[in-house]
């Protein structure tokens, strides 16, 4: 099976909202919720994608001819590549009947672990979703990053017990999920957190805690004050608040403030190895990619995920070689070009 065959099969297996477009840029699924589209006028997902394409890369091949080292280390764990599969939930609601959340997470966690990266797993209104994700992570020796919704502290403590039982090396919370329509008016309740409440959650986790949904320096500072080990610069694909900036537009400002205080991930419209390179050159430690991994699972299960990882890895390594970066640490801001 080739990656092109995976995408062709995904087109017939996924849906009805995701169109498996040649360029996954948010245009065909604009403002489709439920579904993968963005909220309101639906342009944030498109803006995420377009912002990365506005950034260009400086080529420099007068350098030592070596095979680039694409590996990274985060919190004592080594990964083959600086990209991760992002958390996705409510599979049947958004992507059709083929997989439920438990089946999707089981495939994704195993395939990512087998190919040198980790999958962030989703959470949902059904408690079995998080239980299933934790079981998949445990089966893969802790190689997965469970992502919990911003429930009340009692519910979160129960989920953190599952995280620790699974042997996960890190845990995340998509704090911006407070804006998801299907999480409103639920029991247990979910919603935004104060710094003090978030600090209590970080302490309950007991392992490196990642806060997803940071779009400002002020938000990054609050996450740091709460004890987070990392943040994910993310606008949830535009699905929680209309008219936000693109993640690429705010990343450097947050990196400049951070000064190494926390690890910084970024997501939103990242689709190719060149996009990953740009994010790293702007100061991110790693990136998350969500929807293309959904397409890979629907089109080829474990093999589809493997092929997509290999595609991204080859594109990233080629870009590094063409810019004189022998390792991830060599990638820097001077390798990017932006018109004056």
UniProtKB/TrEMBL annotation:
PROSITE patterns reported for this sequence: FMN_HYDROXY_ACID_DH_2 (PS51349)
GO MF assignments: FMN binding; oxidoreductase activity
Pfam families assigned to the protein according to its UniProt record, in alphabetical order: FMN_dh
Domain of life: Bacteria
Binding residues annotated for glyoxylate, in chain numbering: 239
CDD domains, A to Z: alpha_hydroxyacid_oxid_FMN
Family: Belongs to the FMN-dependent alpha-hydroxy acid dehydrogenase family.
Name of the protein in question: L-lactate oxidase
Species annotation: Anaerobutyricum soehngenii
């Amino acid at each position: 099976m080739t990656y092109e065959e995976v995408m062709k099969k995904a087109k017939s297996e996924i849906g009805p909202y995701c169109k498996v477009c040649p360029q996954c840029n948010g245009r065909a699924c604009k403002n489709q919720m439920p579904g993968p589209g963005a909220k309101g006028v639906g342009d944030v997902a498109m803006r995420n994608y377009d912002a990365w394409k506005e950034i260009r890369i400086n080529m420099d091949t007068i350098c030592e001819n070596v095979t680039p080292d694409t590996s990274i280390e985060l919190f004592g764990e080594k990964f083959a590549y600086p990209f991760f599969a992002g958390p996705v939930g409510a599979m049947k609601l958004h992507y059709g009947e083929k997989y439920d959340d438990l089946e999707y997470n089981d495939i994704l966690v195993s395939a990512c672990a087998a190919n040198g990266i980790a999958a962030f797993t989703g959470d949902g209104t059904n408690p079995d979703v998080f239980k299933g994700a934790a079981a998949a992570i445990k089966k893969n020796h802790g190689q997965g990053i469970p992502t919990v919704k911003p429930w009340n502290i009692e519910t979160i403590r129960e989920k953190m017990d599952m995280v620790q039982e699974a042997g996960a090396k890190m845990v995340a919370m998509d704090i911006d999920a407070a804006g998801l329509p299907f999480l409103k008016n639920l029991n247990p309740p979910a919603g935004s957190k104060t710094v003090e409440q978030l600090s209590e959650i970080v302490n309950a986790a007991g392992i490196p805690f990642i806060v997803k949904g940071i779009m400002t320096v002020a938000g990054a500072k609050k996450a740091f004050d709460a004890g987070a080990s990392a943040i994910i610069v993310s606008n949830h694909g535009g699905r929680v608040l209309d008219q936000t900036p693109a993640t690429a537009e705010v990343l450097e400002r947050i990196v400049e403030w951070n000064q190494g205080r926390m690890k910084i991930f970024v997501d939103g419209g990242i689709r190719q190895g060149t996009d990953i390179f740009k994010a790293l050159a702007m100061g991110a430690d790693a990136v998350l990619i969500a929807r293309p991994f959904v397409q890979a699972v629907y089109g080829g299960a474990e093999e589809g995920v493997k092929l997509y990882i290999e595609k991204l890895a080859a594109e990233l390594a080629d870009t590094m070689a063409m810019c004189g970066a022998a390792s991830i640490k060599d990638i820097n801001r001077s390798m990017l070009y932006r018109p004056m």
